[in-house]
Design brief:
Length: 281
């Protein structure tokens, strides 16, 4: 049974986890963040039971969520391992998994467990003040257990936390995860940024006339650069292949355009519309 959790990093995801766990469970929560105001506000709101800035003391938690940027997840885990109790479950919320899962295998002692995690929820906004308890409600939550983590430990983690915050747990391997998020998250983010840059380079003055379509398509390009730099670099092999596949699709479209192939052009837009309609809103 899980009685206490620790959350390292109280930004958008970590803060939302803390608020969701507070609202939908009876668990005690430890919050750790380098920003004093995040800790102070979380304590003031009653979101966490205790909080501190550094991992420099024993962390008496059954589950520890590492909600740091992807690029520092492993360093954070290494730093906190000596402070965790036997049987503790460590989990992360990073948007890439294979690099993290492979690194964890080399540092995790036998008396600790790791479950890779990734909630498919977020916002172009960031920080504790943008977090909310409903962020994960109805969202898919990827679960990628380390091979040494017992099934019953995974089941307890899912039943006592993930399901209670309203998320839909999806068990996958790290390779499948990274390809899926490359398709539906990482490449779309790159394309959103590319569209913004393309429009500016083609005609900067044209941007002032942008309406709903352009604004919707470029919204996610407003996300944090530092966070996305780490994500892209950690999944670069998958992303490079996907971009080549995307380029091939655009070349097919250009060929249809050059040939005035109305049938192919219509099929291109018709299929896209049907695919979009099939996605749950």
């Amino acid at each position: 049974m899980i009685k206490k959790v620790a959350i390292i990093g109280l930004g958008l995801i970590g803060g939302s986890l803390a608020k969701a766990i507070r609202r939908y469970t009876d668990l005690n929560i430890i919050g750790v963040d380098v920003k004093d105001d995040y800790i102070d506000e979380a304590l003031r709101e009653g979101i966490i039971n205790e909080g501190f800035k550094k991992i420099d003391r024993p962390i008496d938690a059954d589950v520890v969520f590492v909600c740091t940027p992807v690029g520092v997840v492993i360093n954070c885990i290494e730093e906190m391992l000596p402070h965790l109790k036997d049987g503790c479950v460590i989990t992360d919320v990073g948007s890439t998994k294979k690099t993290i899962m492979d690194a964890v295998k080399g540092i995790l002692p036998k008396d600790k467990f790791f479950i890779g995690g990734h909630p498919m929820a977020g916002s172009e906004k960031c920080g504790f003040y943008s977090s909310n308890s409903e962020l994960f409600f109805g969202s898919n939550y990827f679960i990628i257990p380390d091979e040494k983590t017992p099934d019953n430990v995974v089941e307890i983690f899912i039943d006592e936390i993930i399901k209670k915050i309203g998320a839909n747990p999806i068990l996958v391997d790290s390779y499948s995860h990274d390809k899926i998020v490359g398709i539906v998250s990482h490449v779309p983010h790159i394309l959103s940024a590319a569209l913004a840059n393309f429009a500016y380079r083609e005609d900067a003055d044209a941007i002032k006339f942008a309406a709903g379509g352009f604004k919707d398509s470029t919204r996610i390009s407003m996300s944090q650069t530092e966070m996305w730099k780490d994500i892209i670099l950690n999944n670069k092999d998958v992303i490079k292949k996907l971009i080549i596949d995307y380029e091939n699709l655009l070349n097919e479209f250009l060929f249809s355009l050059d040939c005035d192939d109305i049938k192919s052009l219509c099929e291109f837009f018709d299929s896209a519309r049907e695919i979009r309609k099939s996605i749950a809103s």
